[in-house]
Amino acid sequence: MVRLDSTNRAQYEKEILDLLENEELTLFRERFLELHRTDQVEIFLKLDQFNRQRVYAYLSPADFGEIFEGLEFDIQEEIASELDERYFTSMFDKMFADDVAMFLSRLDDVEANAILEQMEAEEAQEVRELLSYTPKTAGAVMTKEFISISSMDVAATVIEKLREQGPDAETIYYLYVVDKLGKLVGVLSLRDLITAPANEKVEAVMSTRVVSVPVEMGQEEVAKMIKKYDFLAAPVVSSQGRLLGIVTVDDVMDILEEEATEDLGEISAAKGATDVNVSAITAAKKRSPWIIMLMFFGLITAEVIGQFEDTLEKIVLLAAFIPLIMDSAGNTGTQSLAVAVRGLALGTIKKGTIAKMIRREFGTGIMLGLICMLVLSITVTIMHQHLVLALIVGFSIFCTLSIATVIGSTVPLIINKLKLDPAIASGPFITTVNDILGLLIYFSIATALLQYL
Question: Which CATH architecture group holds 148-258?
């Protein structure tokens, strides 16, 4: 397999494109298929529709299936519309069941069923099984292409079985041992297998301390478990302990990317609109509920300022520091929000560590507040020659930052306790809440000391 680097990529791509243009079928297949799949995908994406049609003609459905698996869903839809129906279904028959299920799960039921009806019965049944599980669970993301063996098999027999079934399995680094009822009873690593004597029984070399995941476990929890144990794959079992499939590390990487994207969308109040391929209309629809809600929160902010109209009329200069107070509160709260959401996502925040985390963030807020109060007090005194004004602004920023860190860190914990996604405590939401509190603190202190201004 050839892996392109920065020095030979352009030359190699040109050679392959020339072979495609000149319709040199045999040489094109030889040069193209020796590439890593990632490089095949990158070259394929640069082709126009005419040359893509040539690729479909030159590559078998099995060959092209590997490229199809590496494409984003919106591109897969476009490519699917270009493929001949027989070629398309034959390609799905050769692909791993979990990749087919992932694609079909995003289509409407009528389209998905039409494709399944045309697939081979055995392959279609595996895909239907995966589609029957609750989305974003271990069952929905597992693959059915794994190798299971009996504890009574000997090493030589298992190695021969690997030669026959290995090419169709997604991974062979772990072999799962099942009993007559299909229940998972052990696991055998490839290393232990090839180092065992040829006539050694599997039960003598397998490990019986198997870490498995239930079929209904959430995909994010599955990903965390595989990361925790440094697995290449994890077996998925039914409530009766029957081995149903495996979740592989490449699926975990996709899951973590998906979850991180979702959390980023939540934190930025742009859930579902972070994909650059989403249209402007779709992005606006996704973002508008949050923006409208935050707009009404903004009315509360305006009302707070209105309540202190008399204070502002007497000392108009106070208005100059409103943006500073609001921005500082929002920024500090968002930082604490990121700390809390990250801790919850990684599982580092537990019942015994919550108080410690909040104390740490509160202490951080106090330190930040003291630093900002000192710098701001000196700056305001020099600029406006007004010591009391400097005291008001400085003490307000101190109180605001101290409280903002606590709010930013506790709101996600409360939402998590309510069994909701803590990322919905979005940055804009935390910012707006802290804006309101910051203004209340600022104007309350200013009003109390108004006679000295």
Answer: Roll (3.10)
